[in-house]
Amino acid sequence: MSASKPSATAPIDTAGLPGKRVRLGADRPMPLDSGLDLGPFTVAYQTYGTLNADRSNAVLVCHALTGDHYVLDRHPVTGKAGWWEQMIGPGKPVDTDRYFVICSNVIGGCMGSTGPAEADPATGRPYGLNFPVITIADMVRAQKLLIDHLGIEQLFAVIGGSMGGMQVLQWAVSYPEAVYAAIPIATASIHSAQNIAFHEVGRQAIMADPEWAGGDYLNQDRRPQRGLAVARMAAHITYLSETALHRKFGRNLQDRTTVTYGFDADFQVESYLRHQGISFVERFDANSYLYITRAMDYFDLAADHGGALVNAFLPNGKPTPVRFCLVSFSSDWLFPTRESRAVVHALNAAAANVSFVEVETDKGHDAFLLDEPEFHQVIRGFLEGCAEHRGLTARRHARTA
Amino acid sequence: MTVLDDRPASALNGTGRPADIRIDLRLVADMVEPGSRLLDIGCGDGQLLYHLTHEKNVDGRGIELSMDGVHRCVKQGLSVIQGDAETDLKDYPSGAFDYVVLGQTLQAMREPRAVLEQLVRIGKYAIVSFPNFGYWRIRLQLLLQGRMPVTQRLGYQWWETPNIHFCTIADFVDLCRRCGVSIERTMILDRADRVVSHKHGRLANLLGEQAVFLLKRR
Fold first, then answer.
1. B86-101 burial: b if 16+ Cβ within 10 Å, else e
2. B41 CB within 8 Å of a chain A CB
3. Residue A214's closest CA among A134, A128, A123?
4. What does the mean pLDDT of chain A come to?
5. Mean pLDDT (whole number) for A27-42
6. What is the mean predicted confidence (pLDDT) over A36-61?
7. What is the spatial distance between Cα A338 and Cα A183, in angstroms, rounded to a whole number?
8. Per-residue pLDDT tens over the stretch A233-242
9. Does the N terminus or the C terminus of chain A have fewer Cβ atoms within 10 A?
């Protein structure tokens, strides 16, 4: 990796990022699962489409581990297209001509919401490891404050994949009256031992980088870029499938005809992973990576409800009013279908309203971000069914999808 | 998956409204009170669920074994999960639904008795339909040809059929008695899906090509 050490050393200037932001928890700090309080804090967010008069058409999008709120915007750091343009936009399954779409950067993140790279109001210097450990439920609490701030009593839908799906489940469990429909995609109600293990590899890679400096690197003008890049490389493998890797790269060599009998990136797959690692460090903070992976590791909905997941979906002993649509992908080994099915079984046991589809694909966990027509048709159909039930009027503009 | 009928999906016409639904499904639909909660097991492409949701304001859910069927249902906005009735029904709480429907699928179950018991546990009522193996044409085929019967509706050879537990109306009535299931209503259909009887006696067992029962736990 030494030849390809990334050049970016400046921290992301989050104050200059496009999008909206709101200061929350100023009069009353937000209590965290850890027992600590957070506040005041900032939530950076984006909205698309128009909120209707009775505020009933809001869709909250929850992003994944390394995602952010630039769902449809060109990314301000990488310049890449919005991360969920396949799913969301005019005429798309989550139709911005019809719905008011909100996405916020999670707390603990590094794209404008308060996280370890932001200044601690108490010291004026970056939090670093003084930032409190947060959980998925804490992220959702912050989103709820944002939704309250926007004057929305009930979200029409909450949708997200992977860690976003965890937030969707948490929303439905924490605020069942504030969610009409929940779409948890490629996710689970519990973070598995294998997934915790992969996260630990990533965290150790970061913490083993001397530039991490005990988490204080921002105050010392250092960056643990190699550690963060390795963490990303390891994680990226888990987002794909063996079939997809073979299809994309096989054993093809990178810009050469024979192996070099050395440790250059002989193989295309090595070159690809190195590129993934290097480009990631430009847009992500290493401590944020530690905090957010930790939040996922701690996720266990059943444990929060006496060890029985069904209880999570029985608020006040009654079946949850939320309508669910779960989607899994056949080649996803990070959040395999059986984990979605476990949630479905618990929802059945609670006599909840649930749809569940496994999409056949070889694209692995990342399939939820990619062009999967069958998947998109399912989401479109589910939302249309819910909109009809909810009494939402049809799209404002006629448009051929 | 309706094992007897592989006709293509719901006849949705241009208006997005279903064309007339299959007659046997209509008979099932007629038994259902408007606004009730219903679980359709083996809901196929969702024809019955769609009809009940839109025509009778039913809060309908479905379980379907084939992914293709599930996709078609969810795309229409129906609440359907991919699952296997024989393993998944135990998850549901007792009395969770007003009706549980098992259409033309009982004979394909590994353990029809266990499934029947689950149906009347989960639903206040169960609606079960199945092909009658006591139908006179079937009896005649076996008698005259000495071969496993193959009819228009049961078009499988013995070595390929998913229907592993055929029964006659008399057999089914006997099973209900053994399981403490009371028969609330009976409809016996002939080959043209006409109701030929509301009784389940010996004549019905001879003349009925299929039967639809409304059941209740005693």
1. bebbebbeeebbbbbb
2. no
3. A128
4. 94
5. 96
6. 97
7. 17
8. 999 999 999 9
9. C
How many Å apart are CA B192 and CA B79, to the nearest integer? 31
Given CA atoms A28, A29, A33, A34 in this order, what sign does their dihedral have? negative
Residue with tokens 């890679």: A205
Q: What pLDDT sits at residue B154? A: 84
- Cα A65 from Cα B79, distance rounded (Å): 29
Please report the domains of chain B, with CATH numbers, ordered by start residue.
Answer: 23-217 (3.40.50.150)
Inter-chain residue contact B83 with A377, CB threshold 8 Å: no
Q: Which of A325, A275, A287 is nearest to A118 (CA)?
A: A287
Per-residue burial over A224-234, b if 16 or more Cβ lie within 10 Å, else e, is bbbbbbbbbbb
Instruction: Kindly state the tokens that stand for B103.
Output: 């259409």
Domains in chain A with CATH codes: 45-104+154-191+300-390 (3.40.50.1820), 195-296 (1.10.1740.110)
Q: Which amino acid is at B52?
A: L
Summarize pLDDT for A156-189 with one digit per residue, the tens: 999 999 999 999 999 999 999 999 999 999 999 9
Q: Which chain A residues are within 8 Å of B96, Cβ to Cβ?
A: 351
- The structure tokens listed for B32 are 């259902």
Interatomic CA distance for residues B97 and B119, integer angstroms: 10
User: How do residues B29-53 score in pLDDT, each as one tens digit?
Assistant: 999 999 999 999 999 999 999 999 9
Chain B hits for A401, Cβ within 8 Å: none
Give the containing element (helix H, strand E) for B39. Answer: strand B37-41
Interface pTM (ipTM) of the complex?
Answer: 0.84
Q: Say how many C-beta atoms besides its own lie within 10 A of residue A140's C-beta.
A: 25
- Give the residue among B16, B82, B77, B93 at the shortest CA–CA distance from B44: B82
> How far does A345 lie from chain B, in Å, by closest CA?
6
Cα separation, B186 vs B11, in Å, equals 27
DSSP three-state, residue A198: helix
Closest-CA residue of B relative to A324 is B79
* A&B contacts, CB < 8 Å: 65
What lies within 8 Å, CB to CB, of B29 at 6+ separation is B21, B48, B51, B52, B55, B56
Structure confidence by residue, pLDDT tens digits, A230-286: 999 999 999 999 999 999 999 999 999 999 999 999 999 999 999 999 999 999 999
* B92:A348 CB<8 A: yes
* Averaged pLDDT of chain B: 90
Cross-chain Cβ contact B77/A378 below 8 Å: no
Look at residue B19 in the predicted model and tell me its pLDDT: 52
CB B212 within 8 A of CB B128: yes
Assigned token pair, A193 = 């031992």
Gap from B120 CA to chain A (nearest CA, Å): 16
Q: Does B147 touch chain A (CB under 8 A)?
A: no
CA A99 to chain CA centroid, nearest Å: 20
B76 at interface of A, judged by CB pairs closer than 8 A:
yes
Q: What is the pLDDT of residue A9?
A: 58
Token pair belonging to B7 = 């006709």
In the structure, what pLDDT confidence band is assigned to residue B11 with cuts at 50, 70 and 90? very low
Tell me which residues of A are annotated as active site.
162, 332, 365
Amino acid in the structure at residue A114: T
